[in-house]
Amino acid sequence: MNPNLVAVKGGLAAMRIELRQLYTNGTSLVGQFLTPALFLIAIFFLRDRNYHDTDLSIGELAVPGLLGCVIAFNGLYGIAEVLALDREDGTLLRAKTVPNGIVGYFIGKVGTTAGAVLVQLVVIVSLGAVIVGGFSVSGGDVVTLAWVVVLGLLATLPIGAILGGLIVGARDIFLLTLPLLGMIAISGIWYPITALPGWLQSLAQLFPMYWLGLGMRSALLPAEAVAIEIDGSWRHLETAAVLGVWSIVGLLVAPIVLRRAARHESGSSVAVRREKAMQRAF
Asked: Residue 97: CB partners within 8 Å, gap ≥ 6?
């Protein structure tokens, strides 16, 4: 049988097992939904406050932002954390010993994260519509929401895998936290960036977070909400182009970085990291 096909099947099988474990474990479920639940509670109390001089409530703007943020954070940080932990406990080393194991490993981790994200998005849209109101998904909006979600996942998950492959141990994952939070803060994923200085607007538009927020707002908000965006346009073509470029770059580079990380793995290096982890624990 074709080794690549075997790797794909192995990755998909691992994805199914990990998703089943994720949604049959109470602790994992709390970890999945606690943060979105807290944001939805905050959004509930903001549902009657208007954004500047518009008829849009802050809550209406926040729900699309929360959807984009779930994709961005899980895609960039979540999978990087998983890869760093797997590198520390030897999982990546074991994948290296199987023919095309790194390809199967990559497919499995990306698929698991994407599946978990999709479940969170469905829950947030459903509860957001009840809590906030003011938006709906129907007709062409469904198509827009679908392609933004797909391109958003493709743009962020491989980049997260690259970051995870570059981090040596789980202890270093915190190095991503502050830069990522800073990028989210200026990204416009939660709100239109027209209120920010011009140079920050230009910087934010280089990264996928801004386009995720813009795409989500275009799918969920009323048509007249476009007036608060740059150039008064949803810029669907630009959104697809930027997210597409990030997707292509990530999908091309991620397997190379993971293979390189695996080549540097050995039983002795894993043992050293485990010993250091045990010393930190005690």
From this structure: none
Q: How many domains does the chain have?
A: 1
d(CA 214, CA 232): 12
Distance of CA 134 to the CA centre of its chain: 25
Compute and round to an integer the Cα radius of gyration of the chain: 20
Quick: pLDDT tens for 7-36: 788 888 889 998 988 888 878 778 888 888
Interval 127-170: pLDDT, tens = 888 887 656 565 568 899 999 999 999 999 999 989 888 887 66
7 in any annotated domain: yes
Cα–Cα distance between 159 and 149 in angstroms, integer?
16
- Hunting for tokens 């779930």 — which residue is that? 70
Q: 68 is in which domain, residue-wise? A: 3-264
27 located within any domain: yes
